[in-house]
Amino acid sequence: MTDLQSPSIANPNVLIPVNPAIEDYMRGLLDHTDDQVLMEMEMFAQKNNFPIVGRLVGVFLETMAKMINAQCVFEFGSGYGYSAYWFAKAVGSTGQVICSDADLVNKEKARQYLSSAKIWDRIDFRTGMAQDIFSRTDGLFDICYNDADKGDYPEIWLMAKDRIRPGGLYIADNVLWHGRVAVEQYTDVFPGWTEAIREHNQLIFNDPDFEAFINPTRDGVIVARRKND
């Protein structure tokens, strides 16, 4: 059996942060009362090979949002609303999740799914480049969530960090990038993306205004809390 912790392994496909058996066990601990809309969203992702954070990370996002009583969330890269589903549940009927995605088809799918889940009224879904949309918003956010193109991660962090209220969170998915960040030799999905994620992670951990941690579930989720003034 391959040693999954060996730093000498160059193949990123074998660097599975959490053993699949452990993740299966963790999923088994979740509430077995399944939301039909959620299952449909997950089946769509599986059928179309559409990247979503999945059930374990979704529950994690909802829990993080509830822990800080989040009411206003901005998403950089929303796809068809899977992560927004979890944030919308957390913010409740008085909160708002601003979604951003360049694809109008994704917006329409999100509208259909989240309307069926009776949480569309908590969503402000805007189409276009996430950074452009964010620059046209005002005020501070409880959470800025980043799941956009990985090459843009450092830029998005630098844009978002000063727009998070004290005690608020910056959260980003794919920060372990299937193990590529931890090895010297790898084949990238797009040129420069691994280096961009490494730079992004280092910027966060070096920022004196934030406390950060990486949850290794699935592909790695970074959570950085802005310190109180």
Can you describe what's shown?
The chain is built from 8 helices and 7 strands. With 229 residues, it is an alpha/beta fold. It has a single domain, classed as Vaccinia Virus protein VP39 (Rossmann fold), CATH 3.40.50.150. The protein has a 7-stranded mixed beta sheet with strand order 3-2-1-4-5-7-6, sandwiched between helices. The longest helix is centred in the N-terminal third of the chain and has 14 residues.
Mean pLDDT: 92
Rounded radius of gyration (Å):
17 Å
Instruction: List segments where confidence is low: pLDDT < 50 over at least 5 consecutive residues.
Output: 1-10
How many separate domains make up the residues?
Answer: 1
CATH superfamily: Vaccinia Virus protein VP39
- Overall spatial form: globular
Distance between the termini: 49 Å
The percentage of residues in β strands lies in 15-25%
In DSSP terms (H or I, runs of 4 or more residues), the helix count works out at: 8
Helix content: 25-40%
Strands across the major sheet, in which order? 3-2-1-4-5-7-6
Supply the CATH class.
Answer: Alpha Beta
How many strands in all? 7
Q: Based on helices, strands and strand pairing, what is the structural class? A: alpha/beta
Order of helices and strands: HHHEHEHEHEHEHEE
